């Protein structure tokens, strides 16, 4: 066979593999949504969960997932930005920097259950945080920080070196060039990575079973003082998230309508993850067009 025919064969194989993966993914998503959406009602979304009786909801679990996500991202984003900027703009090119990058790659490939056990030993036991939202947020930070750091570094390195030289030519210092030229140019990629990271940790379960806990105490939504023990914003209370709730329902099977609750919860979880992914693409493309248009007008 000629090289041209081999190229066509290889291209066809790649298209077939890609199409097969897309079909499998679409089948799984449609199966979860078709099975779960008929069970989703406003009462189901906002209602309290039930341990033994049928008809429970996921209101507290959904709130816990969002609250824990926000808290973990508040911790992860500043750390990942600082680490990514240092590795991209300030770190010298030597064996130590390469070792740090390799360690980040290793950390990003750790199974989530290992991160959960690490969080249980360090945050829940040694730091005496127990099963709490704060312990879960710190575990998610360990889980998500390597990926966010790599995304920030890659986005910064994708900025052409001539933009840095333009900043230096204008008399800007390195820090001013990074903060006023490089970071704004890399902002679409950074924003996309942050939103995708948020979707990844929103559906995490294994790391939270050992840190945030598998139960939620009764909450007083009339008192939002974080120091109040029954406050929804209390970071030291245990918090069963939506993903942990799905795992718990399927593992215990005590609720009479366990299959319906699990299917509805899975559909809500998938919708939120899809929302994060579509939001990442939308805001990333919109911000890129806005910055590109501003540079052309300038």
Please provide a written account of the structure.
By secondary structure, the protein is an all-alpha fold. The chain has one domain: MetI-like (MetI-like fold, Orthogonal Bundle). Helix content is 73%, strand content 0%. The chain has eleven helices and no strands. Helix 3 runs antiparallel to helix 8 and helix 7 packs antiparallel against helix 8. The N and C termini lie far apart (54 Å). The mean pLDDT is 86.
Beta-strand portion reads: under 5%
Global geometry: globular
**What low-confidence regions span 5 or more consecutive residues with pLDDT below 50?**
none
Helix content: over 70%
Number of separate helices: 11
- CATH level-four homologous superfamily name: MetI-like
N- to C-terminal distance: 54 Å
Based on helices, strands and strand pairing, what is the structural class?
A: mainly alpha
CATH topology assignment: MetI-like fold
CATH architecture grouping: Orthogonal Bundle
Family: Belongs to the binding-protein-dependent transport system permease family. CysTW subfamily.
Subcellular location: Cell membrane
Membrane topology: Multi-pass membrane protein
InterPro entries: MetI-like, MetI-like_sf, Phosphate_PstA
Short note summarizing the structure:
This protein has 298 residues and is mainly alpha-helical. The protein has helices spanning 3-36, 42-46, 59-90, 95-108, 112-126, 133-157, 161-169, 174-202, 206-209, 242-252, 258-297.
